[in-house]
Amino acid sequence: MKLSKWAKDKGITYCTALRWYHKGLIENSRQLETGTILVEPDSVKIKKQLRVCAYARVSSYERKACLDGQLERCVAFASAIGLSVDKTYKEIASGMNDNRRMFWNMIESSPTHIIVEHKDRLTRFGFNYLETLLQKLGCEIVVVNKDTENEADLMKDLISVITSFCCRLYGLRRGSKKAKKIKMELAKPDGNTENND
Questions:
Q1: What percent of the chain has pLDDT over 90?
Q2: Residue 96 belongs to a domain with what CATH number?
């Protein structure tokens, strides 16, 4: 079948199919001397192009020097298992922070593999949830050292948890006091909003 017909059947544009053909991503395809590209309809599989990322993270600026070492070890490990790292990401942030800019940039790049030195470098909590979700999206997390955790980073993250909960608790209390004050002012029969305390 012609590439144009194949593209239409797959629900993609001809330009996309042509680009895939030139990148070698469509198996069982060939170009005739006339320039027509033919694709075998029954046995067509799109080769998955690998996009491998390495991610390094530390919790504080004092440990910034460790980032390059983490990335070097991740890249060396990837090479040892036959993967070539396309892009590296490094970040200074808590493993509990869910607004990490470099982390989200990496996820949005649609990697097929994410290599981290330790699983807590990717996230402090919910690693299994993240791993399952990324598998559904066609991405595999490769952890170089599965059983080690840095105690200093763990303590920093624990402090972050406590600080976060305290801020939320104090915010709720302040909001509650404000609401109570407004209710009292609205309930005054003379309409006077001055505080007579």
A1: 21
A2: 3.40.50.1390
